[in-house]
Design goal:
Protein name: Pyridoxamine 5'-phosphate oxidase family protein
Helix content: 25-40%
Organism: Ponticoccus alexandrii
Number of domains: 1
Strand content: 35-45%
Pfam families: Pyrid_ox_like (PF16242)
Distance between the termini: 19 Å
């Protein structure tokens, strides 16, 4: 499954949003910022949100991805932690995060949350043309289309 983990990290870079849910909370749309070296998905959120509150307590959480442009679908289980690292926050800061805060990066409610994936079920599908070919082939041959890679993966601890 090493190849599927590599595919996951390659494609999660192209995911613009998914649904983050600390344990016991409803899922909310969040934009992941992947960091393979740290085995992390970073999120910028506001003080008092479910993501922030869960991160303060090191909550179990899930992140759901369904992104046809990235050809990635995944259910990821892991943990949330709040990180107080101004340099990392500066590195992660972007125009999309700025739009949510009245005072931009200097807003006192800005919080950095680290999601550490532990395990996931991942589907890495074919590009549209390849998928359409598989559907056409299956229709003609009565075979099942090859939708791409699928499996359960366990993530390694950060290096």
């Amino acid at each position: 499954m090493t190849a599927l983990i590599d595919t996951f990290w390659d494609r999660i870079d192209d995911v613009r949003a998914g649904l983050l849910a600390p344990e016991g909370e409803r899922p909310v749309p969040m934009a992941p910022q992947p960091d393979r070296k740290a085995n992390a998905l970073w999120f910028i959120t506001a003080e008092g949100t479910a993501a922030h509150d869960g991160a303060k307590g090191g909550a179990k959480a899930s992140f759901q991805v369904a992104d046809p442009k990235a050809n990635l679908y995944a259910t990821i289980e892991g943990t949330l932690t709040e990180v107080h690292d101004e340099q990392k926050l500066d590195e992660m800061w972007n125009v999309f995060a700025a739009a949510w805060f009245e005072n931009g990066r200097e807003d006192s409610k800005v919080r950095l949350v680290k999601f550490t994936p532990l395990h996931a079920e991942v589907w890495a599908t074919e590009k549209t043309v390849g998928y359409l070919y598989e559907i056409a082939k299956a229709t003609v041959t009565d075979d099942t289309p090859d939708g791409g890679e699928h499996g359960h993966v366990t993530f390694a601890a950060a290096a």
